[in-house]
Amino acid sequence: MRTYVWLSVLDNKQGNREKTGSNRGVVYHKNVEDINDRKKFSTWKMTEANLERSLNKTDVNAPDDIGYRPVHLCARKGLLEPLRILIERGAQIDFFTEPDDEASDRARSLGYLTIEPLNMALENNHEECARLLLQNGAKPNNQYFLGYEINLVPLDNLECLKTLLEFGADPNLFSRCGLTPLMKACRQHNIRAARILMDSGASLDIQPPDRFEQVAKC
């Protein structure tokens, strides 16, 4: 089996006989040389047994055209058992590498654009996938261009918020706009999220650093 075939199945269980490129990060049958193989795998079902068989012949960290790995696709779709199998087979779950002191500003900026599987699980409200990733070493305080993990998790996803805090996320981190999660919850009139954050140590009187004074209204 070719490396990319089952990546498409993770993101589209029915496959697609027409597409052979990528669309929104979905890879369809790339590197399948024989048209009969392409037809065969277009109806391939996503089961644990099929995944186990395919993993014997493929790289569990194989990227698609835009850099997503199988763990990204599982986290985004909420595929808990396939995600568990991938982790057991040694799949990487953290991809951001902290730049060293000599890294250029461009390299640093590009680094913060890295999207972690944990972020995808949290954004799509897949709490069990997020918990599995955190249990296996995913960092709860990943930093992105717009803020940290705790700043980006949708506050309506209360169980995901609780899980992230349970594994050590700092509730007092500022987003790029100069807001803590508690400030964001208050702005959105989300009382339940505000209570969860306060119970986890969110400060009631924290002030944003000076560099945020001009962007605090965003």
From TrEMBL:
Q: Where are the ANK repeats?
A: 66-98, 177-209
Pfam families named among the record's database cross-references: Ank_2, Ank_4
Highest taxon, organism lineage: Eukaryota
Q: Which UniProt key words apply to this protein?
A: ANK repeat, Repeat
Question: What Gene3D superfamilies does the annotation carry?
Answer: Ankyrin repeat-containing domain (1.25.40.20)
| InterPro entries per the UniProt record, alphabetical | Ankyrin_rpt, Ankyrin_rpt-contain_sf
Q: Does the keyword Mitochondrion apply?
A: no
- The identity of this protein, by name, is Ankyrin repeat-containing protein
Q: Which organism is it from?
A: Plakobranchus ocellatus
